[in-house]
Design a protein that fits this description.
The protein is mainly alpha-helical. 53% of the residues lie in helices and 7% in strands. Strand 1, helix 1 and strand 2 form a beta-alpha-beta unit.
Length: 445
């Protein structure tokens, strides 16, 4: 039996590990031994609450919503679990990047392994099996209210359970989940037992997956920006006095964002939760599905990019008439760069500042964290384009000075043609940066 390359336990999963695991750089994941024991303990309590003389526990021996006070038998729960995801599994628009949806499976398996959700270890192992085989749930871009990712996570639950309409991406192709499982020799159907649909759906894990790659992309883009700045500085082209202070502030704020997102990788986010007490467990309800803080920091990330983008635009504007830039056609680049800056400005309007109640005021605070994370990813993609424009101009200036040594030193594997238009050069650089620095787009390219 193959030993896992890394184990999840609900307490130690980091942004770096998630990114590496999804990109195939961590090997296979398995449920840790202590985590498995915790899950077995809380699951035994679920079994006791399914006995005939047990107290009424929401979501365990009752229905949901209008049926929250209606007691259901274990047999009724098994049948009902096949239908619960369908009213929520609604999505429109393009499909999310399969890299992101795979990450959501790993994150959800990790938080369930904490043992507070009362699911069987077999469920977590099923999720990890799907993840380890490179299968990604097929989930459309729009479908979350932003309080809880009920829509996207309902699709995840359908994939894990092998429900008939569930779809996945495997090796770049979209197909029925059952067909994919059968082709790989997996169980095509995995019966979801009491509490296990609720535990998968009730939370903000898809938002968290997007936020993780927003942090990863931001970190990579800050590194790219510094490399490009080194090329500019070597030629003593243009200095903007206030940029150093703003860069320092951005770095400090980004540390806050990174730490917040990192913490949320290991936070249980469903209802009810099971806490161990002297004579067993108690079920506790709370707003555990909320991801308010992620909404806040994703909005902040986009605001940081506004300042970054404005400095990039200012640099391009100041090149007009600068030495060694006379023969470079800056007008076209400045025009497309200006459009990207305006886009980032429009995306910086905070989604989390517009909370409205949903479900007839049952959900009294909705932070729209899913929308905030999506906007951050789009702003990052626009900023990546801006950096491509800056690098294109730096390369062209170096060429006019017959000195491209600095560019080759900073990007030694860069091979692009500079004989075509600036737009074509920038497009080539955009692809180069994405591949070299593992920049993950919100939607598949």
């Amino acid at each position: 039996m193959k030993v896992a390359d890394f184990y999840i336990d609900g307490y130690n999963l980091t942004i770096e590990q998630i990114v590496k695991a999804v990109l195939g750089q961590m090997g296979t994941a398995e449920l840790g031994h202590e985590a498995k024991s915790r899950c077995q303990g809380s699951r035994a309590q679920i079994a006791r609450w399914l006995e005939t003389d047990a107290p009424v526990v929401y979501g365990v021996n009752t229905g949901l919503g209008n049926l929250k006070d209606t007691v259901l038998s274990p047999e009724e729960h098994l049948a009902w679990n096949k239908t619960i995801p369908y009213p929520h599994a609604v999505g429109v628009g393009q499909y999310l990047n399969p890299v992101i949806t795979r990450a959501s499976l790993l994150i959800r398996a990790n938080v369930l392994s904490r043992g507070y959700s009362g699911v069987r270890p077999k469920l977590i192992e099923r999720m990890l099996d799907i993840f380890n085989r490179g299968i990604a749930p097929a989930i459309r871009e729009l479908g979350s209210t932003g309080l809880s990712d009920l829509g996207p996570l309902a699709h995840n639950a359908m994939v894990v359970g092998g429900l008939e309409e569930a779809e996945v991406f495997y090796e770049g192709k979209r197909m029925q989940a059952q067909s994919c499982f059968e082709a790989l020799g997996m169980e095509t159907v995995f019966p979801l037992e009491c509490k296990e649909v609720l535990a998968q759906m009730n939370g903000s894990t898809m938002t968290q997956a997007i936020a993780i790659f927003a942090c990863h992309n931001m970190q990579q883009l800050l590194d790219i920006e510094q490399k490009i700045a080194t090329i500019w500085d070597s030629g003593r082209y243009i200095a903007i006095d206030s940029k150093e202070q703003v860069d320092y502030a951005v770095d400090k704020a980004f540390t806050l964002i990174w730490n917040t997102v990192n913490f949320e990788n290991n936070v249980t986010c469903d209802n009810p939760l099971l806490f161990e007490i002297e004579d067993g467990y108690e079920a506790v309800m709370g707003c555990n599905c909320s991801n308010t803080q992620i909404g806040y920091v994703m909005d902040l990330l986009t605001i940081l990019l506004v300042d970054k983008a404005s400095y990039a635009m200012e640099l391009l504007n100041r090149l007009e008439g600068a030495e060694h830039a006379e023969n470079i056609k800056l007008e076209a680049i400045r025009e497309v760069a200006s459009a990207k800056v305006r886009l980032i400005h429009s995306l910086s309007i905070p989604a989390s500042a517009d909370s409205i109640p949903t479900k007839a005021n049952q959900e009294d605070h909705v932070e729209f964290s899913f929308g905030a994370a999506r906007k951050a990813m789009r702003a990052l993609e626009a900023y990546q384009s801006l950096l491509s424009y800056l690098l294109a101009v730096a390369i062209q200036i170096d060429m006019t000075r017959s000195n491209s040594d600095k560019t080759k030193e900073i990007f030694p594997d860069l091979k692009v043609s500079v004989t075509g238009s600036s737009a074509r050069l920038a497009a080539s650089l955009h692809r180069y940066l994405a591949e070299k620095f593992d920049l993950i787009p919100l939607l598949p390219s």
